[in-house]
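Here is the promised in-class demo. Please do not try to memorize the tokens; focus on the logic of going from shape to residues.
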């Protein structure tokens, strides 16, 4: 059982360490993470290397109990008494130095190297090759575009040159997380600049869900008509009153800029129809 004095000593030891420091120690246990007894604190293991932070592509045979390693600190958890380490960082210093040099918000350019089901890899113009992945840059699907799309190939193509905003350094995978959509105007904010609550719009039903129907009011903007806003009389299911592809009039009931949500009402539009606006009349970027 660990004594209170050991906890205090470990906290003091870890408090003197900073992210980015290089630590050496001895591997003491192999489990889901590699436990390392760090030099300077022999009482118990304080260093831990996750499977993705070891020598890439060699888990679980990357290290052995008793082996000496040097790794870079990626995070410090004083509450749990742990320093999370990366062996990959010390084995690929050029890659780590490049990724550390990037600043959040900076715009970087590169070539789309691969499109995968979980995102898009980008080979950055000024970056080194990645030892495992097709590119050092990576764009998750939500960061590809403000607009709805079915496949990443609807937005980018392999070989295409793109400029993206740097979001963060993913130390687990040794990659630069990027955003393509951050370099483009947000069509929702443009829509919100011109649309007003109470305005009547013409739109097309794009999707039916148990709680209502989604309606596209411009090429880029869809809003939700809640079940209770579909008709003046109670509705059990949206398909009872509307169908996908149908053109309907709706009234704007709420524009939430922060959450990028548009709320609409069909029943309120059926009461008047004054000031009807078509989707083409809303000025959003194409």
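The designed amino acids, position by position:
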């Amino acid at each position: 059982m660990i004594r209170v004095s050991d906890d205090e000593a470990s906290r003091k030891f870890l408090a003197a360490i900073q992210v980015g420091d290089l630590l050496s120690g001895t591997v003491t246990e192999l489990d889901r993470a590699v436990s390392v007894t760090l030099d300077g604190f022999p009482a118990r293991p304080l260093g831990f290397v996750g499977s993705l932070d070891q020598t890439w592509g060699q888990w679980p045979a990357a290290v052995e109990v008793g082996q000496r390693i040097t790794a870079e600190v990626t995070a410090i958890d004083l509450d749990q008494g742990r320093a999370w380490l990366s062996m990959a960082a010390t084995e690929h210093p050029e890659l780590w130095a490049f990724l550390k040099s990037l600043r959040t918000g900076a715009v970087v350019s590169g070539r789309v190297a691969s499109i995968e089901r979980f995102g898009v890899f980008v080979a950055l113009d000024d970056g080194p090759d990645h030892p495992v992945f097709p590119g050092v840059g990576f764009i998750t699907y939500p960061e590809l575009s403000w607009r709805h799309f079915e496949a990443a190939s609807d937005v980018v193509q392999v070989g295409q040159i793109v400029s993206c905003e740097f979001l963060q350094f993913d130390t687990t995978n040794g990659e630069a997380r990027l955003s393509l959509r951050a370099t483009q105007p947000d069509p929702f904010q443009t829509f919100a600049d011109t649309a007003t609550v109470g305005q009547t719009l013409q739109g097309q039903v794009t999707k039916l869900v148990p709680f209502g129907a989604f309606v596209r009011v411009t090429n880029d903007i869809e809003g939700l008509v809640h079940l209770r806003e579909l008709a003046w009389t109670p509705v059990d299911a949206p398909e009872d009153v509307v169908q996908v592809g149908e053109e309907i009039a709706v009234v704007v009931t709420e524009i939430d800029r922060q959450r990028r949500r548009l709320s609409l009402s069909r029943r309120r539009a059926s009461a008047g129809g004054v000031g009807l606006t078509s989707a083409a009349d809303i000025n959003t970027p194409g």
